[in-house]
Amino acid sequence: MGGQKAIETGSIVTVDYKFFLLNRQKEKKTYLVLEDANKKEKKYCFYRTIVGGLAGFDRFISIEDFTDALNGYLIDDTCEFGADVFVSKSRRKGKGERVSMNLNTIMYKHTWKVTDFSKFDTPSCSQPFTAADQKYCTWKLVLYPRGLGIGKGSHLSVFLHVYEPENQLPIGSKILAEYTIRIMDQIHGKHRSIKGKKWFSAPFWSWGHYQFITQEANAACLKKDSCILEVEICILGLSIPGISTT
Questions:
Q1: pTM for this entry
Q2: Pick the CATH number of 108-244 from 2.60.210.10, 3.40.50.12780, 3.40.50.20, 2.40.30.170
């Protein structure tokens, strides 16, 4: 999308698309085609609140295959890409609400390694990460090594946050996610985990556990003063207020 102003206020643009990469070596030109495996359920939505409006594929083609002259994609330092795009627009009206379920039933896994764990006295945040191809929603893990709330001083507290929701989703949006947060036991393999199935929405953009694991038990899981956390996320539904297709 051509920037934030490319979308009118109150509008949502939904896009189905294919990308093409030309094989220029063969006499009869052929294309490498990449598209969503399930277009009915995997459409990309752009909102005015999202700056930039980007969608695509993290792994279109490997560098090795792309640069191999035998494949014909890169000839004389030149390549040719194409795109087939279908666009539909929606507008938010009144207080209506649409709930889309089962947007992505694939469980996405993210691993976060915290080094020099014993030196942390303040909360630590993972780098933001995206669950599979659900690019409208980015997440982060927040670890309180000395505990928070009822876990302060005795436990580790761990929470899963939606990262900067005000920049990703229209006001009033909700995300239904099933998740598992796990602390890896690097010594004995007896990992500790919690599971949840929650709606993430304002003001509750984070869920987790104040008393995830005692500090003594966690110390027995560490190796070379590093703590490894793992989270699995499955996005089950998305609720966007005031959408009617035009």
A1: 0.57
A2: 2.60.210.10
